[in-house]
Amino acid sequence: MELELLVSDFAAAMMRADAGRPQASSQRSGRVYQPGIGPHPEDSAVDLTVAEMLALSGERYSSLRTRVPYPLSKRKCDLVLGDPCQWAIEVKMARLSGDNGKPDDTSIKDILSPYERDRSAISDCTKLITSGFAGRTALMIHGFEDVRRPLERIIDAFEVLAYARVSLGPCQVCRLEKLVHPTFSDGRVFAWEVLPIEVPS
Question: Which residue, 72, 92, 117, 124, has most beta carbons within 10 Å?
Fold first, then answer.
């Protein structure tokens, strides 16, 4: 399967999950957020999306698994398709505002931090190429549009920083449209195949 199709199916499934008006709540305060997939934690959003991928294309994604242990470490990979592995994919969320519409800097760290302990999209790229998975590897970011903090700027910054560590395949993009949450109403899913940097011979 090519990454373009996988990204398209992921975006379609995420919009379908959102249409079910799922509600997340804060583990700390117990506050219930407004309906929609946008306020959900990263793992929960992936679980909701994968459930819809199976409902929409069960045969195609019968071997899709979440949080699969890496062959060479105790860490877990967000998505693995195939047995044996065809794709190992790390997923990150770019949510630059909170449920209340106020700016939230958490995603900036989650996407761009150069430090391994932050488990950012940048460090995930390095982790993927040394993962030990037999198949291809990819990094996926799903994010929500914010007029004050345009989504494409953090994506541009990610690509610049990632290219210092790995090689990226062409960016595959699909839109997320007409989502039910007033703050997280539109977005995009981005994904790149992650490859080692080619060293000139």
Answer: 124
